[in-house]
Amino acid sequence: MNKFLFSVIFFLLPAVLLYPQNTYFVSINGDDLNSGLSVDSAFATLQHASDIVTAGDSVIVLPGAYTGFDLRTGGTQNAPIVFKAFDENVIIDHPNSTTNDGINIEEADWIIIDGFKAVDQPRAGIRVAVSDFVTVKNNECSSNSRWGIFTGFTDDILVEDNVCSYSGTEHGIYVSNSGDRPVVRNNVCYENNGCGIQLNADLSQGGDGIITGAVIEGNILHDNCYNGGSAINLDGVQESVIYNNLLYNNHSTGIALFRIDGAEGSKNDKVYNNTIIVPPDGRWAMQATDGSTGDTLYNNILINHHTFRGSINFDQESKPGFYSDYNLLEDRLSDDGGNTNMTLAEWQSLGYDIHSFLVAPENEIFIAPSWGNYHLKQGSQPIDIGTNLVLPVVDRDLDNIPRPQGNGFDAGAYEFQMPDEIINSGRINYYQLNQNYPNPFNPSTTIEFSLPENVKNVRISVYNVLGQKVAELVNGGMPAGRYHYQWNAKNFASGMYIYELKTEKFTAVKKMLLLK
Length: 516
Fold this sequence. Notes:
Helix content is 6%, strand content 39%. By secondary structure, the chain is mainly beta.
């Protein structure tokens, strides 16, 4: 059996055991007259695979450039239909034959779309409509005419670990219409003309005009909003949580809770532990307007470089139930929709942000903000100033580090983590695998780590999203110290990678996004 085929079978084995239906293959060297049941008898087109799949089937797409597909057959909870790219070199560069999108899922529940690159599409890279319990993960959607990922009338959708960039007219990720309980998690959206992430309940299209139970967490959004909007734009979104998001250099509002198309304002939302840095041409870091009542803001870092606009803006229609505290703020806040501003002292006299502080300069708080590194410096202002009232929503940070690490919760998306301490001969030594910069990473990423004395069997490995090792940087024993190893990624495709520090007694894993 050839090595490539063995790898595919090994990768699919858990799914095959769980769902004893068919596993099909698609290859640029295939033929739609084939059975599709092996690499050597693969189909040629994604649409042919889409036309024949039933509940529980999987489709593995081998490297190459393809025309997209339109899927209208659903799976079930215990037998979803899975379309998975074998590696990061599966590209959809032509729209499917039915819609103007790369991948279109319509009236088909329980679908998983995993690992595709959808580029240069006339409308959306990936579109999901009138379909529930769909997962869209590990995809890269770039330079599409309107949206990276679009959903409409979808309940319980999961949009996770995707990269959406350079959307021509609108947004990186757009969840529209009255779909409830969407989860938008750990995505990176940048250089989109509109919003990084927009949720719009849009009453005019039918339904109740309200999105409820949304979870928006762990997203990194930067350099969006050239045509207005917000980094996170929420219209008619209620009873939802927005936390651990990092937003910087977006040229409009950071997080906006409002009503234009929705049936009501964005009410009773929890905005916790976000880091928002607004550039000089932006708007407010955080706003609640148009009857967006009952919203709560805790543990946020809200920095604004605009000369007049500042950290928080709400209007009188949204005042009932509005609560904000334990944040780091600019000395510019507004309770009249941003027409005027007031100082933090004046704001506190109204009963808001009693335990909040004026924010220190960025270079005193973050490790390297000019490089997109907004992790906290040791001893910096946000450490331990937060509240545990964010529990049970926030129990980890953007890096999946448990909160709190110190005497209290830190403000912002990142919790400061002291190195793991090991007592050795009266000395405190440590292991630590650090996050690497800049972010997104470039082909000359430097991986940094620290070791105690005389560590044996040290390995630094890099894996792709399929769990396949693509590089090994270190293999052997090393003395104590702090090390930098460069991963020369010039021959690797853009996408998500995992890097792992492993010794006899310790394992640390982090995720990186490589963009060229």
